[in-house]
Amino acid sequence: MRLASANGASTASTASSASSASSASSANAFTITRICQHSMADVLLSDDTVDAIYDNIHRLLTQSSLAGIDCIDLLYRRHSTSQHAATASAFAPAAATTTSGKPTGSHIITPDDLLDHVRASPNLINHYPFPRPPSLTPSTDTPIRTRIDTIQAYIQALSYNYVGDPFFTIKKTSSVRNLMRLAQDIVQHALPIKCLEAVILGLYFTMRFEDLLRMTVSFKSECDGQIYRHIVLILKTGDRWGAIGLSRRPDLMNKEIKYQSLAELIQDYKTCYESNYHTLLKVKLGLPVTHTITSNEKITWKKTSVRLSDMPWDSAAREIDAHARSLRSL
């Protein structure tokens, strides 16, 4: 679902008021999504049942206006269980019916229920604070690995989006300029994100790290007959490789900048996939991304495709490292 933009103001004072309202509504939207995710986590989001969330939550596409922002999807509990009833009652504990007139026994949580809960509990914003984004102009005295750790911590503070579809639409054919504008929107609203949004944020916050090589790597894996896709932002500083990213699995997110080759880094991801009962089928290696934030260039998401399912690892590693060597001439 996409967030609607607020209308511009014609005077400075009106613009200031609109900005304040937008910030407040963004904070409320952020708070509401956190309440949703944390309440669902109590019932559904154990390591063994994280995928079951998509079977137990039906996304109703109705939207609710919240001070100029079209907020989150409705959450619908299909199964009548005491656990779900308890979760629903957390949002409207004193009411026998929801604000839409539907009985709580139907286990439907509407945006109005969420809004009422936030309005009745102003201290909630303190429990779900807005993450503070990293500085775009960090001190040159700060080691680059420390800066990268700060960026990764911010991305994780936004949290993985378990609620439903992405809140932000990312078109891979967009220019770097437009993707960086989108990154600014993601920072402003601070809503939960998925792996692709994490890559866009990683690019945005490392734009001024001129000596940092940045490229994307996409993964295709299989588990129990289902295909899964993932993407991270690969980084290289000096002669060491690492990554920024976000995933439901901690070992498939970021990687410390310590790997001596790109193949060694990808092999670590491969091992982690296998520890999560996935078979890594294919890896797509992109090209370095420009550090010019206003560039109209498009990101090359796939320059080399390595089919791990068709070859032994030694052969795959040679292809990956050949791709890495080819970047020196760019």
What features would you describe in this structure?
- The chain is of the alpha+beta class.
- The chain is 39% helix and 18% strand.
- The chain is built from ten helices and eleven strands.
- A six-stranded antiparallel sheet has the order 9-8-7-6-10-11, with helices on both faces. Strands 1-4-5 form a three-stranded antiparallel sheet.
- Helix 1 runs antiparallel to helix 3 and helix 7 packs across helix 8.
- The radius of gyration is 22 Å and the shape is globular.
- The two termini are 37 Å apart.
Structural class: alpha+beta
Order of helix and strand elements from N to C terminus: HHEEEEHEHHHHHEEEEHEEH
What percentage of the residues does DSSP assign to strands (E)?
15-25%
Radius of gyration: 22 Å
Which percent bin holds the helix content? 25-40%
**Tally of helical runs:** 10
What characterizes the major β-sheet?
6 strands, antiparallel
Shape: globular
Key attributes of the depicted protein:
330 residues; alpha+beta; six-stranded antiparallel β-sheet; three-stranded antiparallel β-sheet; 10 helices; 39% helix; globular; disordered N terminus
Task: Summarize, please.
This protein has 330 residues and is α+β, with helices and mostly antiparallel strands. The chain is 39% helix and 18% strand. The chain contains 10 helices and 11 strands.
Strand-helix topology:
Layout: H1 12-43, H2 53-56, E1 57-60, E2 65-66, E3 69-70, E4 74-77, H3 82-91, E5 108-109, H4 111-120, H5 124-127, H6 144-158, H7 176-189, H8 195-205, E6 213-223, E7 226-237, E8 240-244, E9 255-259, H9 262-275, E10 279-285, E11 304-307, H10 313-326
Antiparallel strand pairs: 1-4, 2-3, 4-5, 6-7, 6-10, 7-8, 8-9, 10-11
Helix pairs in contact: 1-3, 7-8, 9-10
